[in-house]
Design a protein that fits this description.
By secondary structure, the protein is of the alpha/beta class. About 30% of the residues lie in helices and about 25% in strands. The radius of gyration is 21 Å and the shape is globular.
């Protein structure tokens, strides 16, 4: 039997409300004791030096399995979007995706909602779920046809499966690259109204309400759609939502100079929308913070702004950028970590994301106050398209364990 005793730790587990000093014992890859532990003879000992020991992060929105970036960012589980080549709409392809990176991190794929993500014919989502997918996703695009979306939610209800939606109306965002307003007008960028997002959010909420389906809106980025989710939750609709650090920390001004590394879909919004995101995180309307890890090549980004591919690398910087919410007093550390591990586990039905006895020992050792500067060229991801280049942040991953196996350490 392999045993590891973590001593002198600041234990934080949002799932149970634990926030205390103590130790944690791991036996054969699972948590055996938490708190005042006795170190068994022969156990390996890790002195945490008073640093935070908490569940490893669960990233719920990645477009590529980027193992080195994940472990450096404290991520032990990455949920893979179906927008792959080939698309994750076939059980064999999903099984293969499930095995990616398994010696280091856990990959939990999403099955495509429609064949080829074309939005027309439902994929074999039931077989996809049996093959290892943890949820159904519409991919980078919304399903335009309301009838198809309704059938998908009705079908998913039979499995009690979670449906992850992208909520931009394709007819309104086609050919655009910015959010409508004075700033886009001054730059001469083709833009669309935030109504493109709100319309789809409202539609999918109404369909979820009618069918009883569970829906997770991958990204909410504007005040109106966040308010729609807030009201839906009050009515008891089974809706949750997420956001990425880009829409927490940046607004439309970040595209000044036509910086294509700040080109996203949905685009960066106004400062009022960014503040609405902050309030949504603070009051619990927004459940999850995800990386949106979407590596792009230099060739895809070194284009005129409107032609550049949207997306950013974010796995390695997810934790450090999110910790800004703690350092500026918006969230407690426990509440932030819940949005990065506890809530994803609950929403996506994963057994990790907690420090409970019997849970997988997916653990993160964190020094939340350690200062460093994000340098794009030093990121472990092969691609470097981050909008946070040269940003000063606080919070370093000091160690990461996957099922009790040490997969990353940093002095």
């Amino acid at each position: 039997m392999t045993r590891i005793a973590f001593l002198n730790a600041h234990l934080i587990d949002a799932a149970s409300g634990l926030d205390a000093t103590g130790g944690l014992l791991v036996e054969n890859g699972r948590i055996a004791a938490v708190g005042d532990i006795t170190v068994p003879e022969g156990a390996d000992v890790v002195d945490c030096g008073g640093k935070v020991l908490t569940p490893a992060l669960i990233d719920t929105r990645a477009f590529k399995v980027d193992v080195d970036a994940c472990v450096a960012g404290g991520i032990a589980t990455t949920c893979l979007m179906p927008d792959q080549n080939p698309v994750l709409d076939d059980p064999a392809v999903i099984e293969r995706a499930y095995r990616l990176g398994r010696k280091t991190i856990k990959v939990r794929p999403f099955v495509a909602a429609t064949r080829g993500l074309q939005g027309e014919e439902l994929a074999e989502v039931g077989l996809g779920l049996e093959s290892g997918a943890v949820a159904i996703a519409t991919g980078r695009s919304a399903i335009t046809h309301t009838g198809v979306m309704l059938r998908l939610l009705q079908y998913a209800t039979g499995f009690d499966a979670l449906v992850i939606t992208h909520t931009e109306d394709p007819g309104l965002v086609k050919g655009t690259c910015a959010t409508e307003g004075e700033f886009a007008q001054r730059l001469g960028l083709p833009a669309h109204p935030t109504l493109a997002e709100t319309l789809m959010v409202e539609r999918d909420i109404r369909l979820a309400e009618a069918t009883g389906a569970r829906v997770h809106i991958a990204q909410v980025t504007c005040a109106a759609s966040i308010e729609a989710v807030r009201l839906a939750k009050k009515r008891g609709v089974k809706v949750t939502c997420g956001v990425t650090p880009a829409h927490i920390l940046l607004n439309e001004i970040a595209v000044s100079g036509f910086r294509t590394f700040a080109r996203f879909a949905p685009p960066l919004r106004t400062e009022a929308d960014r503040l609405a995101v902050i309030e949504g995180l603070r009051d619990g309307t927004i459940d999850v913070i995800a990386s949106g890890h979407d590596p792009r090549t230099q060739e895809e980004k070194r284009l005129p702004f409107a032609q550049a591919a949207p997306g950013m690398v974010g796995a390695e910087t997810l934790l450090a950028t999110s910790l800004t919410l703690v350092h500026n007093g918006t969230l407690t550390l426990g509440k932030l970590l819940d949005k990065l591990s506890g809530a994803p586990a609950r929403i996506f039905g994963l057994e990790n994301g907690r420090l409970g006895v019997g849970a997988p020992a997916d653990l993160l050792l964190l020094d939340p106050g350690a200062p460093w500067r994000i340098e794009a060229e030093n990121l472990r991801s092969v691609q470097k398209n981050t909008p946070f280049d040269r940003m000063a942040v606080q919070g370093r991953v000091r160690g990461l364990w996957r099922d009790g196996v040490d997969v990353f350490s940093q002095a």
